[in-house]
Amino acid sequence: MSRSLPANPSFEQLKKQAKDLRKAHRSADPEAAQRIKTHLPRLAETSEQEILETDFALQEAQHVISREYGCKHWEMLQAVVEVDLDAVTGLDDRSTQVFLREVDQKDMVVALKGATPAAREKFLSNMSARVRGFIKAEIQLVEVDADEIESTRRRLLQQLANLAFSDSLDWSFETAFQNPLPVPGFHLRKSCSNSSSSRWIGSSLTK
Asked: Tens of pLDDT along 5-53?
């Protein structure tokens, strides 16, 4: 992983980066060959000259871009950039608990504000009863605006992607919900939370 996403990333811009990498490959750019060698497993043992002489599909260019940004694949990168919190439904319970041990409680409260039932349940069902009750109460009390919710969710999704990239957990996209329904009656208010910041205690995650 060698690149960081900007504060407000554009998925269209990332698509362009993938197309530009493919063009650079076609132009026999040595730097493009090195990037491909580093991030495309099938060509990891191939010389840079042979890489420039072989076929290089757009999907493979997207894979290289994804790994440069710390994501295992294109769909994961898209989930981070487009802030698709429902993609977390692809986590199993063990992976969810690994993630929760790394997450700040305040961030989790903000991220779950207005989240779909599926996303909420994925996290809340993997907390102890005490922590689950605390988080639910804080979600009702906290007042945050849409920008803070989006930036917090993106930060957590990037953190999740980084853990998946390092094989610390398994983030599957086969069972993740697509186009979830919005939460009825939810409205964002512009304000800031005064909740204190603290990290999860590992024992508190056990049921």
From this structure: 998 999 999 999 999 999 999 999 999 999 999 999 999 999 999 999 9
Tokens found for residue 24: 């650079």
In one-letter notation, the amino acid at residue 85 is: L
Helices (H) and strands (E) in the chain, counts: 10, 0
**pTM of the predicted model, to two decimals?**
0.81
What's at 12, amino acid-wise? E
Which residue in this structure is represented by tokens 């040595």?
Answer: 30
* Mean pLDDT within 177-190: 39
d(CA 15, CA 48): 24
Other C-beta atoms lying within 10 Å of the C-beta of residue 88: 24
Mean pLDDT of the chain: 87
pLDDT tens, residue by residue, 4-17: 999 899 999 999 99
Beta bridge partners of 104: 199
Which pair of tokens denotes residue 152? 């917090």
Rounded Cα–Cα distance for residues 99 and 89 (Å)? 13
Higher pLDDT, 200 or 144: 144
Cα angle, residue 131 at apex, residues 128 and 145 outer, rounded to 5°:
135
**Topology, domain 85-205:** Annexin V; domain 1 (1.10.220)
Under DSSP, the state recorded for 187 is -
